[in-house]
Amino acid sequence: MTVHSGRIPNKPLRPAEQRLGALAKANEVRRERAQLKRELAAGWIELERVLSDPPICTQTAMVRDLLLAVSRVGPARADRALARCQIAANKSVASLSKRQRAALIKLLPL
Asked: The domain at 17-107 falls in which architecture?
């Protein structure tokens, strides 16, 4: 088998314009998510509202990261809440089941 410059054979390369567009979109999502975390930390927005009707920027966010953004919630408290709701630490907001989302909202505020 011949290796071709470290890339997978028959995998189409995306044009630079498409890659730059995807990068710009990813950066925008990161900026919005950082702003949301600042708002959670300041108490300007409640986590219950974010979980009930998640903005697009939180779809790929880890639930644990959002919990940690809330004032007075540290790693131990976040991990206990996730364990009580049977949610994995690396679970994203978009992949929460209705049961998990409802259980976590019921626990709030932590």
From this structure: Orthogonal Bundle (1.10)
Structure tokens at 28: 């925008």
What residue spans define the domains of the chain?
17-107
Say what the pLDDT of residue 109 is.
86
Q: What are the residue ranges in the chain where pLDDT is below 50?
A: none
Torsion of CA 29, 108, 70, 24, to 10 degrees: 0
The pLDDT score that the predictor gives to residue 12 is 66
| Alpha carbons 47 and 54: distance in angstroms, whole number | 10
Number of helices (H), then strands (E), belonging to the chain: the values are 5, 0
Distances (CA, A) of 62 to 7, 71, 95, 105: 30, 17, 10, 15
